[in-house]
Amino acid sequence: MFFRKHITWIKETAKAYCPIVILAVLWLGISMVIINSLNLNFSVITIMSALTGVINNIIFVLLAGYLYTKRNNLLSKTVYFLSYFFTILIFYSDTIYFFVTSTHIEKVLFDNLNNYSITGVLYTTDKTILFGILISFLFLMLLFRAPERMHNFHTKNAGILIITMCILANLVNFATAHVYPKALKEEGFDEEAEIETSRNLSRYLLTESVTVNFMREFLRNDDSHVTASNQLYRVAFSAQESKLLRELEIAVSEKPTSSPKAFPYEKVIVIIAESFHRDYLHFYNSRIPMETTQFWDGLVAKYPHSDHYYTSNKPTTQGLNSIFLSQSIYSDDQSFENNVTLFKTLETNGYDTVFLEATSQYYNDEFRAYKKRFGMHTYRAKEDLERQGYTGSSGWGFHNDVMYEETIKILEQNRNNKIFIATKTIDSHQPFPYCGLSEDDIPANIKEQDKNIYLKGIYWENITLKKFFHDLEKRNLMDDKTLIVITSDHNPHPSQNDNYTRLGQDDLRLSPAPIPLIFVSKNLQPFDDFSSKTFASQIDFAPTLLGILGIPSPPEFSGRNIITIPEDHGYAIGCVGETIYYWSKDHQITTDMYSGKNQNDSEKALIHWVQDSYVKYFHGNSGNKQQ
User: What is the pLDDT of residues 304-317, one digit of tens each?
Assistant: First the structure.
């Protein structure tokens, strides 16, 4: 009845405030995508969260529209349009990011945003999708309307009313979301209360203003909580903390040890695949067709490997930092002149060290930053490979076939030398991995699968790795003094893209998550006592490799030699942003490093250990102040 009576007024209002109506409808559509992707139930609380999100996400344009109705001049109209333009741009950017990561835009996006990453994404994304995004964006721009004559739909205090409405909506939503789980718990429905509390974390994605989040992440300083290295000191662990840590299998004063049957391999090659999950392998995930990873699976079945090897930090530079510096926390201060790294330790023990990068050396200034932080003797990137005559670079950089060919050339040139090569590939980079094969060269069971972009990319990884090992054998480079280690820089983001979700759920939905770790050699002497069931993470990589080679691990490293760790005493550590992750056979912990909210004594002890490991990197085991 109300709508019939006021239909004309509603139509005129919607027309006058067309940009605001468009944004409200657009955010409701995005909310439906989020709800569907996160499997949220359509409860009253979820609907309230979505409606609160509408208000939060149109508030700036709403205020700009109100300003235009008050001023009705060119400047206010320009502000109105720009607020509309940038809000939709952020909507699009955030939604695309959500499809890849299942969260709103994070600081890491801005850390890695440059012309090389943009080129890589554009190259690997389906051109039809790109065209659709562009056309829809332009269409929404053309829908912008700011009437020349404004009706008197606003009151004198409409600005205050808009802000008040926004605040009240958030207060009601906040109160409802937090009171309901407590009410359930008081009534004895503990499990339902836990489920509702978990849902609230997902509902927050509906209510949050993506514009505010965008600006906050853009301005956020990840190092703000990390004390400058010249102000660091170590705080002694209490007897209670040491006891709690022992229950987590963490020994405060533990030092990495060499493997009992260490062997000084003269050639060590580490293949670091980009964003490659353990469960990309059929060996671990039956939803991956057997043909997709037949060679990888054969390596896992035949050679020593870890079934529970986790990402310690992400994205790429942070993950490499965990591998080469044995550190879970990442900061700029770790990049100092005499820092301790895996590369430098190997060089001290007679190895030449090489890092091969598929992408441009100018990506985040890596040709300077990586040499300073990681300390490799030789750094080669896309530009160096082009000077050597390689062609075919596209998207993110050179593809696996070129990277493996160059690795083999370096090995041939160093037949009589001790050398360590870390080859970082890029073809499995998100949002869409690369496949360099024609449709005729892809098995029918893969190409006939629905949503098979990821499957094709994984198959390409399988085929190129198989050829790499074939070429090693063909050129007599795979002897008993050569060790090949296969791993990843970090796990992929748990994307909402159908091509990713069809791979399965379980650990593929986690972040951080397990990644491959496989040791391949004709001489497996050091691995006699190694258990594949031992939990470990990237901070254990450097101590483990040094232990295999019989080289003492520097006291600055925080990881362990997992070859010597019994299955029941293993654990994995991750630290992404401000969140610490812990996994073991019997425990799983996720806790915020700085908030201090609702943390038990075990979590506090774990935080102390992670922070102490960071401080130890600058001081080793000497010269530490105890408190």
Answer: 999 999 999 998 99
